[in-house]
Amino acid sequence: MIEARGLGVARGGRWLIRDAGLRVARGEVLGLIGPNGSGKTTLLRCLYGALAPDAGEVRLGGADIGALPRREIARRIAVVPQERPDDSGQRLREVVALGRLPHRGLMPGLGAGGAAAAQHALERVGLGAMAERPFASLSGGEAQRGLIARALCQEAPILLLDEPTNHLDLRYQHEVLGLIRSLGLTVVIVLHDLNLAARYCDRLALLDGGQVIASGPPEAVLTPALLEPVWQVSVTTLPRRDSGLHLIFAERPLDGQNQELFHAHH
Ligand SMILES: Nc1ncnc2c1ncn2[C@@H]1O[C@H](COP(=O)(O)OP(=O)(O)OP(=O)(O)O)[C@@H](O)[C@H]1O
């Protein structure tokens, strides 16, 4: 449904992304993982046409995204970016309702359907009671959930998210990722927390130095052999009771304390 082939982005004589390829099937949740500066945001921006690649192409439903009008892309792809929008004194419900823009006709005004969609999206992220709050007054986590509500309100079949759990406490990390999974959308999500990636993604793509160095199901990508050279930490994988795996990190090769923790789980 969305596919990148041979993507390259160059800046200042350096490839930020090099020969990157990925394919996301309909209804699949793909996690983009990789260390700081590995090119995750750059790749994501190419996927929604915000950045034109210097090599390769992104295909959306078979068409080159570079040839599609912005409004058409917005009907098909909703984005939760890393940065908060510039504050223009809007209330939360107004920011969320902006998600309806690609569905509006030429007539101004949101209409009752749009207002109901905004309220419904706010309730899904647990912010139903805060609709009238100025967006600027929200905490980091509330604002983040507000931007997710804006994307849900857009009702696009593809959802791209850049570190959506950044400001969220533990409860909302799981609630929001559980919600995203339950929507049945095609999702590409940048995640720093590899345990969340293991739990909520169908497949992972591992970026390092602008290249996709591994991709596949979490069990195939989250291995000590792949992760340790990339992050320069020691990695231990533990099976989870409910299937899947859990990772433990240490600065050095396993010391006595981590060995004890490991054995306590077995
Ligand atoms: N316009 C630009 N000009 C030069 N270098 C850039 C530009 N934009 C990004 N970069 C560099 O490209 C590399 C990849 O950046 P990117 O933001 O895609 O990484 P990331 O994996 O999302 O990182 P993080 O985990 O820190 O958010 C970084 O080294 C960054 O400094």
Describe what is shown at a glance.
InterPro entries: AAA+_ATPase, ABC_transporter-like_ATP-bd, P-loop_NTPase. This protein is an alpha/beta fold and 266 residues long.
Strand content: 25-35%
Strand count, sense and barrel status of the largest sheet are:
6 strands, mixed
Total DSSP helices: 10
The CATH class is: Alpha Beta
Task: Compute the average pLDDT.
Answer: 90
Strand sequence of the main sheet, in spatial order?
6-7-8-3-9-10
Low-confidence segments, given as residue ranges, are: none
| Percentage of residues assigned to helices | 25-40%
CATH superfamily: P-loop containing nucleotide triphosphate hydrolases
- For the secondary structure, the number of strands is 12
Ligand list: adenosine-5'-triphosphate
The coarse overall form would be globular
What is the helix/strand order? EEEHEEHEHHHEHEHEEHHEEH
Count of domains: 1
The fold-level CATH name is Rossmann fold
Structural class from helices and strands? alpha/beta
The CATH architecture name reads 3-Layer(aba) Sandwich
The radius of gyration over CA amounts to: 20 Å
CA-to-CA gap between the ends? Answer: 41 Å
Family: Belongs to the ABC transporter superfamily.
Organism: Pseudoroseicyclus aestuarii
Protein name: Iron complex transport system ATP-binding protein
Pfam families: ABC_tran (PF00005)
